[in-house]
Amino acid sequence: MQAPLGYRPSPIPQPFMIDVKNITRRFGALTAVNDLTFQVGRGEVVGFLGLNGAGKSTTMRMLTGYLPATSGSIQIAGHDVLTESLQVRRSIGYLAEGVPLYREHRVSEMLAFQGRLFGMKRADFRRRSAEVLDRVGLSDRSRSLVGKLSKGMRQRVGIAVALLHEPDVLILDEPTSGLDPLQRVGVRKLISELAEEHTVMISSHILPEIEAVAGRLILLHQGAKVADGTKSELLAKLGGSHLKVLVAASSVHPRQLKEALKRALSSSDQKREGAVFVREAGDSIEATVRVDKNPAAAVGLLASAHDWILRELSWHEPNLEQLFGRLATGVAENGLDVASIAPASEVGTMGGMEETEAGA
Amino acid sequence: MSGFWAILRREVIGLFLTPLAWVLLVAAVSLNGFLCVAALMQSGGDVDGAFNFLLGTGGAYWMLMITLPPLLTMRSISEELKGGQLEFLLTAPVTDGAVVLGKHLAVVLFLAVLWAAIPMYGLILELQGVSPDWGQMGLGYLGAVLVSALFAALGMVASALSSTPLLAAFLGFIFNIAILILPMGAGALGGTIGGLLKALADKLNVLLHLQTSFMRGALDSADIIFFVAWTGLFLFAATRIVEGRRMWS
């Protein structure tokens, strides 16, 4: 393309390491990925979340160029995936789902093969293979056969192989699937470390995994992006947070409580209009206040002003797992039904607890 | 290009490390050795006749040609497509063509080693004071390697089409047999299909091209081009099939 007169190339040639525009992938009648657009900046760690079949692997395969998109464009490190495929592949370290390595090779042979595939110089290769083995903690296993290693170790070999040629972008498809909890912690820790030097895209259907390493999350559902942002942004956007107020029944009438809370909320600054549900629970009255920001302080003041006997005042935010479960089962993006989330959020789930108690 | 060499190297080493390859090698070399002695004894010492028998006219030659290449190529694509290794290869800076060509060439090199046993028998005779016609022997050997390359390319097509190695081997046998009997059977069918088959058979007559030059000891470059061109065409087909299957993975 001819540059217009007076045009000067921007000093930063590519603002994004990954630039995906309106990609769609169809397999016959099935649309695996539908009009997906997102950008990933240098050094960003992005988690790709979705149920099985949401289009995560398909998208990742399209990013690597293994699978061409039906429509749309993808640029990796400034190179177009379709027209400059080989350059793109040089910029990417890819760990496919299931870690497809040659099991009959020793770890060192697997690395050597990767080095040759990427045309690395002998000296570079020596230095890098020692570095990556050290990085993944397998320096003492370089003579082991890949097929004889445990799943967790094989996963780490896969990461070492993907890292060997010092790629700008790391794409890891389900790197922790099938691992036991201890191995999972190891791989997760490794990924967190890698995140400091690489642009990383990691996919998972296990939320706590990805929450732990990725600063930004993209939620995919049925091939489409349903949310994109940091965890707190997603929580704010998707809603579902609430304040639980438990007051002794002897100190206030339910209707009185509801009215007072409503009045207090309308004066505090909330993005979304709050809602108050009140029910009797034994000798207490339980009020659920559905709002975006924690109004515990205001409610506390209200309680002392009215001489309510406050038994509990706690702030609950749903964890992503619950939000995602709701999303996946077809709840609209604009607001979730808090009543159905509340019981679950009180129990919490392993690894994904996201509750903040505010002065009871 | 570095990718092609990496794949070729890995495949060659891999072939020489698999038990199957060694079983095939030992079986073929033993069979040829036995046939060499038998042919020499039966013909009353006709050395050139015996080597012609081993490198073209004998049934054992064609039996090995039909069975060995598919057995060596059967795993190369089918297994890696299923196991995901092909995804690993094709997300490295390597083209589909380089992957197919590297794997094919490794099998051809292995078969070249296998057929090299026959000139070795000639060398043994030479050391005993009986000199075979080395020109004819060399061409016979070259012919054997070229036919192997052609059938290995068909084996790659079979492997690319199949989801399991067993199916790939079976399909490869069928392809090889079909190509060999095509010129004989093509004339039998009438009509448009018969005509088309006849036209194809005229262009793809493996036996004829082998007999007119390599087995006679007279080299015609057209016959080399025949084998190289058809091998290339089948490898191209295998590459396109790999690309096609990648699209639907």
How are the elements arranged and paired?
The complex is a heterodimer of chains A (360) and B (249).
Chain A: E1 16-27, E2 30-41, E3 45-49, H1 56-64, E4 71-76, E5 79-80, H2 85-91, E6 92-95, H3 107-117, H4 122-135, H5 151-163, E7 169-173, H6 181-194, E8 199-204, H7 207-213, E9 216-221, E10 224-229, H8 231-238, E11 242-248, H9 254-267, E12 275-281, E13 284-290, H10 296-306, E14 310-316, H11 320-328, H12 338-347, E15 355-356
Parallel strand pairs in A: 3-8, 3-9, 6-7, 7-8
Antiparallel strand pairs in A: 1-2, 1-4, 4-5, 9-10, 11-13, 11-14, 12-13, 14-15
Chain B: H1 2-17, H2 19-42, H3 47-57, H4 59-73, H5 78-83, H6 85-90, H7 96-115, H8 117-127, H9 134-161, H10 165-186, H11 191-203, H12 206-214, H13 221-247
Could you characterize what this model shows?
The complex is a heterodimer of chains A (360) and B (249). In chain A, 35% of the residues lie in helices and 26% in strands. Chain A has two domains: 214 residues, 3-Layer(aba) Sandwich (Rossmann fold), CATH 3.40.50; 121 residues, YebC, transcriptional regulation domain (Alpha-Beta Plaits, 2-Layer Sandwich), CATH 3.30.70.980. Chain A is elongated. Chain A starts with 15 loop residues before the first strand and ends with a strand. In chain A, a hairpin with a 2-residue loop joins strand 1 and strand 2. In chain A, the strands form three sheets. A six-stranded mixed sheet of chain A has the order 6-7-8-3-9-10, sandwiched between helices. In chain A, strands 12-13-11-14-15 form a five-stranded antiparallel sheet. Chain A is of the alpha/beta class and 360 residues long. The longest helix of chain A is centred in the middle third of the chain and has 14 residues. Chain B is mostly helical and 249 residues long. Chain B has one domain. Chain B is built from 13 helices and no strands. The longest helix of chain B has 28 residues. The model of chain B has no long low-confidence stretch (mean pLDDT 88). At the A-B interface, helix 2 and helix 3 of A face helix 1 and helix 6 of B.
